[in-house]
Design a protein that fits this description.
Strand content: 5-15%
Distance between the termini: 52 Å
Number of strands: 17
Oligomer: single chain
Shape: globular
Largest sheet: 4 strands, antiparallel
Number of helices: 15
Strand order of the largest sheet: 14-15-16-17
């Protein structure tokens, strides 16, 4: 029998979920309802596990397949496992274990991963986004395994040992990459390190290193430390040192894009674990020279260095996470509260501080919308957008100095024309608690953050 809930009670619940200022203790905006709905318990290759359906389209928000690819993938399931673990709620324990079972099932004995399962739950081993590789979906798989080792270390030592064994399968793949250590390939007149995942994929490498950092935080491993140091060195070799995007880490030769660009997020913890202060220095340079400029000027989705083309659209939660949590990583590494405030401001894109002026996350349903394009907000709510939104909010809420700016609004209009070389940029952000003015100085390539009087 369904429980009747009066409309006035429904409204109160929604307002509480949205953090209504009418409540002295606003409820967390983190809501797993939609992600829970995308999950399904299945059996793959004889192994009971949980998948996350890849797309979910408005207005009904049912399950939608990826045509020609499959119904679920390591790319999303691994990140969903990370998000449930980062939330730290004991109620999610069995779901986390079941999601990680899917990740383990899609791992091959040689340490590579396949990515998708078909509608009949057979593994897609031939598709261009699913073939056995040590690329992007493997990076995310190892990210989940590394987080899992830390998460289950005391909760379930036997399962943690199984995850540890699976994580160690990356070592032969890393040894193969290390054969190219120190070599560079000339593309577009610039030399690119040849020993990253997929040769030059700094974006995929950064997400692998998130998993490596999680693993090393609880279990020092000499071989993994050596490989992580070399991969981090490769990331640093792909940092832009001058205009037009000084401080940015290339995602791929000649290209920066926001999605997967987690280099600044991954380097600070590794700097401490590897005793390599240069990694933190590089990350801070990227955060101040590039991310500070982007928040002052306007969101950037992609930049092609060969043509000078800056793409503002589409704007997606995956871009926002890599920015917000990179700044939060700098805060954790340095203790500088400015980075926490900027992380909160970056995450306010989710609450409506964006070019569309509309929230891209709905706390009442837990849906993360699929982005903003020139037509406005895409109201579909696929797995990636929902997962990335939740991940951002979970981490921001853990740091009061960041959470205080989650509802920030810009006093200046967001636009598409802010990326002009040599131009000083100013933007003021306001909340009920106060205001901050962010100034990016073209001459120094750095920012200042000023508190304003109420």
């Amino acid at each position: 029998m369904k429980r009747f809930i009066p409309n006035r009670v429904r409204l109160a619940l929604v307002l509480a979920a949205l953090g209504s200022s009418c409540s002295s203790s606003p409820r967390s905006p983190v809501n797993f309802a939609h992600l829970d709905r995308l999950c399904q318990e299945v059996t793959v290759a004889g192994q009971p596990c949980t998948i996350v359906h890849i797309y979910s389209d408005a207005p009904d928000y049912g399950w939608t397949d990826a045509a020609g690819e499959g119904i679920a993938c390591v790319d999303d399931v691994a990140r969903a496992a990370v998000v449930y673990m980062r939330a730290g709620d004991a109620r999610h324990l069995e779901r986390i274990r079941s999601l990680l079972r899917f990740v383990l099932t899609l791992q091959n004995k040689d340490g590579t991963f396949c990515n998708f399962v078909h509608q009949d739950l057979t593994i897609n081993r031939e598709g261009p986004t699913s073939y056995a590789s040590f690329g992007f979906w493997a990076a995310r798989g190892y990210w989940a395994l590394g987080e899992g080792c830390a998460f289950f270390r005391e909760r379930d030592p036997a399962f943690a040992a199984e995850l540890r064994s699976a994580f160690h399968r990356c070592l032969p793949q890393l040894e193969a990459l290390a054969l190219a250590y120190g070599s560079f390939e000339s593309i577009g007149g610039k030399a690119w390190p040849n020993w990253l995942l997929n040769h030059h994929a700094a974006d995929a490498t950064s997400e692998f290193l998130l998993g490596a950092a999680a693993f090393l935080a609880v279990e020092p491993d000499t071989a993994l430390q050596r490989h992580a140091a070399r991969l981090a060195e490769g990331l640093c070799a792909m940092q832009a040192g001058q205009e037009p995007l000084a401080g940015a880490f290339y995602s791929w030769p000649g290209v920066w894009h926001g999605w997967g660009n987690a280099q600044i997020q991954a380097l600070p913890p590794l700097s401490s674990q590897l005793d390599e202060p240069e990694l933190l220095r590089r990350a801070e340079y990227g955060g101040r020279a590039f991310l500070g400029r982007m928040l002052a000027g306007g969101w950037l989705h992609e930049y092609d260095f060969s043509t000078g083309r800056a793409a503002v659209f589409s704007q997606i939660a995956y871009d926002v996470r890599t920015t917000a949590l990179s700044l939060l990583a700098l805060h954790h590494a340095t203790g500088n509260p400015e980075y926490a405030r900027l992380a909160g401001i970056a995450s306010s894109w989710l609450t409506g501080n964006n070019i569309a002026g509309e929230p891209l996350y709905d706390a009442a349903t837990g849906r993360g919308y699929d982005g903003i394009d020139r037509k406005g907000v895409n109201r579909n709510a696929g797995a990636e957008s929902t997962i990335e939104a939740l991940y951002t909010l979970i981490e921001i809420e853990k740091v009061p100095a960041a959470a205080a700016w989650l509802q920030a609004k810009s006093s200046e209009k967001w636009n598409e024309t802010a990326w002009v070389p040599g131009q000083e940029l100013r933007r003021t952000f306001r909340t009920a608690q106060g205001a901050l003015r962010l100034i990016w100085h073209a001459e120094s390539g750095d920012y200042t953050l000023q508190r304003l009087n109420p």
